[in-house]
Every structure is written in C-alpha cells, then in structure tokens.
Amino acid sequence: MAVIDWDEEPVAAGESIVLQAYAVGGKEPYTYQWVDQMNEPVGSSDLFTCEASVNQTYRLEITSADGQTARTKALVPVIAPTLSVATFDDLFLESESNWMFDPDATPSRNGFRCVLQRFFPLRQLPDGAIRGMVRIWLCK
Q1: Are 33 and 60 in contact (CB under 8 A)?
Q2: pLDDT of 86-125, one tens digit each?
Q3: Using CB atoms within 10 A as the burial measure, which of 15, 34, 66, 71 is most buried?
Q4: Residue 47, Cβ neighbours under 10 Å: how many?
Q5: What DSSP string runs through the chain?
C-alpha cells in the first residue's frame, strides 16, 4: 500500500509543496517514482518538494524489492493571486487520442468513446472558491 502524507490544505503560489510517501508491505528497499499531471517524472525519493504555481495532481508509484507495486495520487490546490487559464499544453493526452470541441458531445458521439477528462475553473475568488466550470472531454 502507498500513502502520501501532506497538509491537504490549499497552498499559496510560490510556497513549497511537501509530499511524503509511505510504503506498507513488500520488502525494502523501495523505489519511488513521482509524476505530474502531464505524466512527466518529477521525483524519485520518498520525499517530494517543489514550488507551488498552479493546481497539480501528483501521482506516485512505489515498487518494493520483491516487485510489488502500489500507486496513489494527491491533488494539490494552489491559490494564485491571479487566475491562470489552462491551455492544452497543461493537459496530458494519451497517444492515439484527440481533443473534440463539439459542445453537444456525449460519451458515444460520432462513434468515439468519450470520457469526461477534467473540469476547469472559470474564476477563482480571493478566498479560493471557484465560480463556473468548463468541461473537457477526452475522446478516443
């Protein structure tokens, strides 16, 4: 089993994010692989730190010496002084996938298999509350 320990509170932009990994089961030593929401490797130890800039999901895979693997993830909300608008460069897209910009898209539209990928805030208030959302569908 893999566990990520952190404050679980929104972090102000520019502050440090500190995520601590714990493994239960398997044989030591453990290897750690942290990736961000773009599926880019960002760390390889039990302690992961970085500077907060935008909301980010960090995924962790821990492998024990005897080959057991456990995975978990943490969504770290970041409070920024100004709203950051997400672009498609901020989203990981599997190969052989494409973005579909049909406002009437449904999970079976035009023979594509579509899943709701993400909701993005339209406006973040000073207290961190979000008003309005945009749906993004991922279709294969």
Answers
A1: yes
A2: 666 666 666 655 555 555 545 454 555 555 455 555 555 6
A3: 34
A4: 11
A5: -EEEE---S-EETTSEEEEEEEE-SS-S--EEEEE-TTS-EEE-SSEEEEE--S-EEEEEEEE-TTS-EEEEEEEE-EE-SSPPPP-GGGS---TT-EE---TT--TTGGG--EEEEEEEEEEE-TTS-EEEEEEEEEE-
Degrees (nearest 5) of the Cα angle 46, 84, 127? 85
Instruction: From 27, 29, 17, 28, select the one nearest 53 (Cα to Cα).
Output: 17
19 with 74: CB under 8 angstroms? Answer: yes
Which amino acid is it at 24?
V
What is the CB neighbour count within 10 angstroms for residue 2? 19
Residues paired with residue 16 on neighbouring β-strands, in sequence order = 51
Closest-CA residue to 62 (of 13, 103, 100, 25):
25
**pLDDT tens readout for residues 47-92:** 999 999 888 889 999 999 999 999 999 988 888 766 666 666 666 6
Q: Can you tell me the distance from the alpha carbon of 17 to that of 3, in angstroms, rounded to the nearest whole number?
A: 16
